[in-house]
Write a structure and sequence with these properties.
The protein is an alpha+beta fold. The protein is about 20% helix and about 30% strand. A 6-stranded mixed beta sheet has the order 1-2-3-6-4-5, covered by helices on one side. α2 links the parallel β4 and β5. The protein starts with a strand and ends with a strand.
């Protein structure tokens, strides 16, 4: 059985997918881009602001599922320029403030992302961490 997770606190999907799916205590959060859900505008100032918006969007989807960043066990980061890695990593790390709370992850450079953004992050979370 799977449950669709939807929230107005994060951008609505821009294609045929859901913000997240909850199944068997696992939450699969679709990739989030730096789209402000209140205005519908892309945050394209600097990579730090973009990453903050992405992580805030992820947080809202987690919240809609009754979870938070402590439930995240895996993230995937997609960026268009590996030179932005340090700035992205600095912002990303603030959402996982303790060493034992950091999830597994990968970060890959891609040729392009939806709406020509520079960063997209998806996540997998579990209802109860052991």
């Amino acid at each position: 059985m799977k449950q669709t997770i939807k929230t107005t606190g994060a951008p609505a999907p821009i294609g045929p997918y859901q913000q997240a799916i909850l199944t068997n205590g696992m939450l699969f959060v679709s990739g989030q881009i730096p789209l402000d859900p209140l205005t519908g505008d892309l945050v394209m100032t600097d990579i730090s602001a973009q990453t903050t918006q992405v992580m805030d969007n992820l947080g809202e989807v987690l919240k809609a599922a009754g979870m938070d960043f402590s439930n995240v066990v895996k993230t995937s980061i997609f960026i268009t320029d590996m030179n932005d890695f340090a700035a992205i990593n600095e912002v990303y790390g603030t959402y996982f403030p303790t060493n034992d709370n950091e999830p597994a992850r990968e970060c890959v450079q891609v040729a392009a992302l939806p709406k020509a953004v520079n960063v997209e992050i998806s996540a997998i979370a579990v209802a109860h961490r052991s």
